[in-house]
Structures are given as structure tokens and as C-alpha cells.
Amino acid sequence: MSTAAPTATRTGGPWSPDEFTGRLRAVPAERYHDRHPFNVRMHEGTLEPGELRRWIINRFHYQRHIPVKDALILAKFDDSSLRRSWLRRIQDHDGLVEGEGGIERWLRLGEAAGIDRARLRSGTEVLPGVRLAVDGYVNFCRLGSPLEAVAASLTELAAPGIMRTRIEAFELHYRWIAADGLSYFRDRIGQGGRDSEEALALVIAWATTRREQEAAVAALRFKCDVLWSLLDAIDHGPAGERP
Amino acid sequence: MSTAAPTATRTGGPWSPDEFTGRLRAVPAERYHDRHPFNVRMHEGTLEPGELRRWIINRFHYQRHIPVKDALILAKFDDSSLRRSWLRRIQDHDGLVEGEGGIERWLRLGEAAGIDRARLRSGTEVLPGVRLAVDGYVNFCRLGSPLEAVAASLTELAAPGIMRTRIEAFELHYRWIAADGLSYFRDRIGQGGRDSEEALALVIAWATTRREQEAAVAALRFKCDVLWSLLDAIDHGPAGERP
């Protein structure tokens, strides 16, 4: 985490593209939710089935809001070619036709883990802390600058790595979940890499002052905090049902 | 325009789907901008080239914001199939690839009328009243309910008709504009009919109380006012340059 005092950083000129990129990449390296104790336990294989189901149910609340935040980001762009490019993210999650897309694949993950679609869609088991974190992220994308909203998406820089680890962990430790339930994770490896390279190029092009660069780094830290807070709430579980 | 007092209408139960549809269709029949003096002159063929160019330049400010308002509407939907369907409207204007889409076709209309792309894109000639009307519409879609935002789009019920009349008028009266500049109007005949049928079905399904039905009618009246105000500003022209 940054040790420079705000007054010191604000007086400097813009970082070089390489230094700026390095500072952006350092954020998920330090704060990404793969380090969260709940995720560590997930990948170690020590989650109980009920804990894994709780994660699938609560993380779905995040997943179903991805196209919403991406539509809010798209609405900030005044250029057809940029919107056309960002629109693909909405299609990745909603699918081009019924029965496709990331949300559908998450529903299948739920089914593979014994959670039927109606239960997952209902949202009745979504924890208050998860709702707050997701609302916070959607509102950040609604109200922030285009630069901040795009920079927040840069957690995708770390997504392909966590997806590969997760697939291995599930195949090794959670064999009670059918392998074809993992297609969401598989598809995100390629999509996350492509999306994060695109977003990184935009952020580097748009943030031309030190202040803008710092705002981009802060947005990415915020997004890491959102993902971390999700796992805090999931790890603790419902009030009155602490393990 | 409705003659019923608010207190009287609020005490009634919901209108039948037929009556509700009739009241919605009555709004553009009464208030659509095809009745505006400037549009009447346009279709009569009495606009000067400078007036027609002023309309193309200012109306482009509206056109380029259509995908923005549609993204804001899309962000209100919590259902993949509904978002997938609405997303097509964004694609209609931005195109599936570079060089396609309604915004591109409007740029070609400008070129056919002697306005180069850079001039049209710059927005420097957009009138204050046009900016206010477009901002008002985008913010209505940003802040209103899904029902209101979708109902406001129902001016499309009248769009195919005005497009047909416009194409005939341009071909007859404004032959200095090359015919292939009119492709935007041609494409909107089919798109407008399809979009308005889809939106009408949603509005009828969603507005189940009289209060909601009245809100939908009010949203459509508001949208007619937006389009009317655009033409007011265009008709008057820049301050200090009144014809």
C-alpha cells in the first residue's frame, strides 16, 4: 500500500506510463480478494458444502449486477466505437441468446452445487453486507467519472489467475460439484484477460495528470475493497448463525 | 389532451389494456412534433438550406444521446432477456461494426447536406435550448422509473409515419441533398415500428394501477415536449440571428 503522503504525491508531475501501470498492477497484487481468508479456505479445499453454497448464492448477487454497472459505464461514453467495445461485456454476462452468458453459467454452477435456479434468483439468502457492497460498487459506476468507473474494472487484471486456481481447487477438493458447473470460471479466463487489457489502455490514455492517475489507483483500491467486503460478509454468514 | 381532473382520475381503477393503449396512442396523435411549425415547413418544402442544416446539426445532438439514454434504461432492468432485447437499440445507433449504425447514417445525412463530419461532431453550433431539452430527456431516463423511461420511448409509435412523410418531402423538395443521405430515415421505419411494439407491450404489462398508467401517459407527454422544444429552439435559431 502507498506510503507517500498525499501532499507529496499531489505536487509531482504525472507518472510515466510504465510507472503508472506498475502502480495499478500493484493494487490487486496487494489487495485482491484471493488473499481473503475465506478465499484461501475455498482454494485449500476446507470449505463445508454449506459454506460453498453460501458463497455461490451471495456472489451471484454480485454477478447479476455486472451488466447493470457496465450499462452505467457505457452511458458515460460519447463515442460509438467505445460503446460498441464495452457493450460486449454486457453480452458476455447476458448472452447473445437465451441460455447463454455468464449469468446463465452461474445459475448452472448453482445447480451443480445443489441450489436450484429459483432459489438463486430469489435473492432471499443474500446477506446485508453483500447487498451494501454491491450497491456501493454499482453507485460508484453510476456516479464516478468514466476514468474511475473503468479503472475500478481493473481487478480483472488478477481474474484469469484466480480463475485458474479456482478451477483446479474445485476439481480437486469439491468433486461433488459436477465439472460442467465450472464453465463460468473457464470462460472468464479469456474474457478477463481481454477486458483488463482494454480497460488498462483506456485508463493510461485518459489519466494524463498525477491527480487523475491517483484517482484511478484509488478507484481500483475501492473495487478491491468491494470484493473483499463481499467475502467478509460471506465468511461471517447470517447474524445469529456464526459458525 | 386529457380533460379529466387529477382527483377524478386518481380515484378510478386501472384502465383496461385497450383503453390504456388508446390513451397512450392519443398522446403522439395530439402532441407529436410532426405538428410543430418548423416540421410542417420542413415537409412542405419551404425551409432554406441554412435552416435545414441547422436542423441536421441540432438534431444530431439528440441522435448521439440515444445510445446513452438507452444504456441508462438498460441499467434499470434486472433480467438478462429484457436487457438483451433493449441492447439492440444501442446497436441500432452505434452499429455492430465501425461505419454502420444510426449515428453514422446521420453523419452521412450531414455530408449529403454539405456539413462535414468534424463540424457535426464538434457540437459547437448546438443551440442552448437543444442542449437543455436533450439533457432533460437523458436525465429523465437516468432518474425515472423503468416504466416511465420505457413509456417515454413510445414516441416511436409515431416515428414510422413521420419518416415516410419526411423521405417523400426530401426527395421532392430538397433534391440538393443526395438520396443516399436519407438512409437514416429509411432504416428507422422498420426499427421504430419494432421498438414501439416492444415498448408498448412492456408498458401495458408493467402499469397495473391507474397511478402507474397515468405516470406512463405523463412520461410520453414529457417526451413529446422534449421533441417539440428541440424544434422551438431550432426554429428560433441562435440569439441575435433571428430570421
From TrEMBL, chains A, B:
Residues 1-14 have a biased composition (Low complexity). Pathway: Cofactor biosynthesis; pyrroloquinoline quinone biosynthesis; Cofactor biosynthesis; thiamine diphosphate biosynthesis. Keywords: Oxidoreductase, PQQ biosynthesis. Its EC number is 1.3.3.11. Residues 1-20 are annotated as: Disordered. Coiled coil: none annotated. InterPro entries: Haem_Oase-like_multi-hlx, PqqC, PqqC-like, Thiaminase-2/PQQC. Residues 26-232 form the Thiaminase-2/PQQC domain. It catalyses: 6-(2-amino-2-carboxyethyl)-7,8-dioxo-1,2,3,4,7,8-hexahydroquinoline-2,4-dicarboxylate + 3 O2 = pyrroloquinoline quinone + 2 H2O2 + 2 H2O + H(+). Pfam families: TENA_THI-4. GO terms for molecular function: pyrroloquinoline-quinone synthase activity. Belongs to the PqqC family. Ring cyclization and eight-electron oxidation of 3a-(2-amino-2-carboxyethyl)-4,5-dioxo-4,5,6,7,8,9-hexahydroquinoline-7,9-dicarboxylic-acid to PQQ. This is Pyrroloquinoline-quinone synthase. The lineage of its organism: Bacteria, Bacillati, Actinomycetota, Actinomycetes, Kitasatosporales.
